[in-house]
Amino acid sequence: MSTLALQIDDIEIIDAKPGDIGAEIKGIDVNEIESGAPILETIRQLIYRDKLVVIRDQELTADSYVAFTRKLGRPQVYFQPQYHHPDHPEVFVSSNVPEVNGKRMGVSGTGRYWHTDCQFEKKPLSFTSIYPLVFPKSARETSYIDMSRVYQNLPDELRKMVDAPGAAFVHEGQMRYKVQETDVDRSLRELLDRINQEVPPVVHPAVIEHPVTGIKSLYASSGFTTKFVGLNYEDNQRFMQAIFDFSERPEHVHTHYWDEGDLIIWDNRYLNHKASAVKPGELSKSYRIGIYDDKPFYVGLEP
Ligand SMILES: [Fe+2]
């Protein structure tokens, strides 16, 4: 990687510390990167290797942010339009900031539970990028768990279960649906049925293999994963709790403390993440763009 970095003037790349995640890139303006520039491949390889990449000191508009992600991969248009930026459907807006005409843009308080983006879809999202615009005073962090490390460290009795041939988890997003104004007068049953129709529960292998690095990760999160296939109700509850309790131990958590201008990109194949809660009355706004690379989400799944 350092050879690649040396090809590009003024760019500083600081690798993740051994055993940790997160590379840092300084000295680039992503608005200036041209399609096909070598730095794009450098960024992709850093994401695969260090799992999380922070690009410092960026000044992005919704427009230029979308343009950059188009060069890196294929930006996602999230399936629920209430999250979309009005002019750029690729931009997912998490915000509680009143806009000029008094209308709120996007949805507030997203992702404050351990999850990996679009885990409840047949083809989950490869990368997630976030660019905060308004920082709440008390909470300037996002937390991550490297699920490849969790897999390596799993106690034997859990490891045996997830390594068994055909071991798989069920994932569903219905309980995380955020009720909207247009849902008034609908029963919870109707809402749940509609969500289940739009995104029915999916099954993915309990352990997924990264299509580029071959690294294996435990693919489960307390936010979206509900069942281990083949267990009865009681055994399932116990097993899932043991998996989540182990995964979410403090020693597995990496916290990113945001600085103004940070653009962060991570690989959802390895990392679970959680947004921090914002205190009542504090404003917060960020743009997110999901990016698909041209690889399958895991070995064995169609790209
Ligand atoms: Fe998320």
From TrEMBL:
Keywords: Dioxygenase, Iron, Metal-binding, Oxidoreductase. The keyword Cytoplasm does not apply. Residues 19-281 form the TauD/TfdA-like domain. The keyword Ribosomal protein does not apply. This is Dioxygenase. Belongs to the TfdA dioxygenase family. GO terms for molecular function: 2-oxoglutarate-dependent dioxygenase activity; metal ion binding. Pfam families: TauD.
